[in-house]
Protein: Thymidylate synthase
Amino acid sequence: MRNYLDLLQDVLDNGAKKEDRTGTGTISVFGRQLRFDLSKGFPLVTTKKIHLKSVIHELLWFLKGDTNISYLKEHGVRIWDEWADENGNLGPVYGSQWRAWETADGRHIDQITNVIQAIKKNPDSRRHLVSAWNVGEVDHMKLPPCHFVFQFYVVEGKLSCMLTMRSVDTFLGLPFNIASYALLTHMVAQQCDLEVGEFIWSGGDVHIYSNHLEQVKTQLEREPYPLPKLVIKRKPESIFDYVYEDFEFEDYQCHPTIKATVAV
Ligand SMILES: Nc1nc(=O)c2c([nH]1)NC[C@@H]1CN(c3ccc(C(=O)N[C@@H](CCC(=O)O)C(=O)O)cc3)CN21
Ligand SMILES: O=c1ccn([C@H]2C[C@H](O)[C@@H](COP(=O)(O)O)O2)c(=O)[nH]1
Structure:
């Protein structure tokens, strides 16, 4: 995960001071890319401990099409608590757009089912896209999607994924986002009988919050460990049948947790 640490250093070196919606203040750069060869290990940050349980349950929750935090709460995941209303609802966020994008004529489109069918039927297609940026519904979401579009690509029996984020909390959010989409790529590859290729991450406003600077410095003093390996213990019937216990991360060696406050 040296490239992740290089990105943190890049933002420290080149970031301009920029105010933001939360009032916290950031340093920010615009437009960056990271590439991870998924066959060389699972891209999980090792210079602090990543709470994998939150990453896995959040992804399973997206895939269910769920937009209420009750499932997350039942599994001890608190990362969305600050954004939910008094009933636990977040509005039509990721899960809703991924599984039930509402069209003008009242139909609901399951983008995840469709993209997997398309990858199986027509791997060469250049239209393997899933978008969470539903222009007509963004204003009803408690937080407009940060990771808002992803594309799959198949060549030589390998599945790659490219993700675009409009806004990136480089210290807290990004390690989660990389792990989440790497995991999704492994799952989709398994469902489509493909090997994994690359995960490519692109970010628009890539920032470090002013109250994460000490934490970032601590992290940059640490030496990364070799990447862990993901083992998926069985092949479920469909992309929607994975459970938490299906995933095992072998040899995840990491430095201790670094605490930080999330900007709301
Ligand atoms: N400012 C901000 N940054 C984000 O990364 C973010 C948002 N807002 N809003 C929506 C979601 C929620 N996400 C979050 C929220 C909190 C953590 C967090 O506090 N992580 C801690 C502890 C994780 C845990 O114990 O589960 C960490 O050390 O990684 C991570 C991602 C990602 N998103
Ligand atoms: O998956 C996520 C979700 C959110 N973030 C970060 C990026 C920003 O710091 C905030 C969102 O604030 P906006 O003012 O809406 O841009 O959340 C993330 O990094 N990853």
In short: The CA atoms of residues 145 and 198 lie 23 Å apart. Residues 51, 54, 79-80, 83, 143, 169, 172-173, 176, 262-263 surround 5,10-methenyl-6,7,8-trihydrofolic acid (ligand 1) (CB under 6 Å).
